[in-house]
# Entry
Amino acid sequence: MPAEKSSLHTRNLHRDPYDFDRLVSCVPELKPYVFINSYQTATINFSLPKAVKLLNKALLLSFYGVRDWDIPEANLCPPIPGRADYVHYIADLLAGQKEVPLGTSVKGLDIGVGANLIYPLIAYRSYGWNMTGVDSNKDSLENAKKILDHNPDFMPAVGLKYQPEPKHIFTNIVDPEDRFAFSMCNPPFHDSEEAAVKGNLRKTKNLNKKHIRKPLLNFGGQASELWCEGGELAFITTMINESALYSSQVLWFTCLVSKKDNLFKLTSLLKKYKAAEFRIIDIAQGQKISRILAWTFISPNHRKDWFL
# Structure
């Protein structure tokens, strides 16, 4: 049997190789996509969007009790293990040297929740946190609501909020009375559609599918999910600028950063705003290593009282 995925967080439920017998028993439609590779290991073709979506559906049902999960073909279909890692590293951030805080008194924001609702589902099931998923795309929010409709046990702790101005992050979302333990975000990575397609071609080649001439966006994704003007650097710069306006209402702001070269400019900006602390946390994201940039304006002495 293949070794566990040691790059994943120690609390990640997906460290062991996929048990495809178990997953197929949850979602029988997955079975035609499972095959034995040259290493005599059961797997799927990760360049096929349908196979990836069915795998996600099976993982969410098997490990998190999420029923009837589905997304439109055009939307982002992210790898579950990497998304779970982000949630667990946030838990470490909130814990500090203590136990991980549990329950709905811990309120989190998922900026750009998308149609898949992945982060709120995993965060609630793993730690019981209260989650608000934010998006500027009404169709994505409508699909996320459908997922909640099929899973009423999540409804008391998972809410959705529409961002009417896509160029804003926290404006229109964080109300004066709000108090969040954290925000999280998987930002648009590319600065154009062309860059997104080229990036996917590289990903496809990495999956040893070089015979595919036209690259499939095998993890899906609409424009707002994959690219924005200026790419992730511009997006996270806006996020940091706006975070300073809500510095007393969010304990930890966090965001994934795919391009390591962007960290210098982003951390320099945090120093300009006199953030009390920032951290860079390496994290496994699918086939590559990414990182979480986390920052807070709350002094250490006041953080310990946040959950009281």
User: Anything to note?
Assistant: DSSP finds ten helices and nine strands in the chain. Residues 195-205, 210-222 have pLDDT under 50 and may be disordered. The first strand starts at residue 34 and ends at 36. The two ends are 45 Å apart (CA to CA).
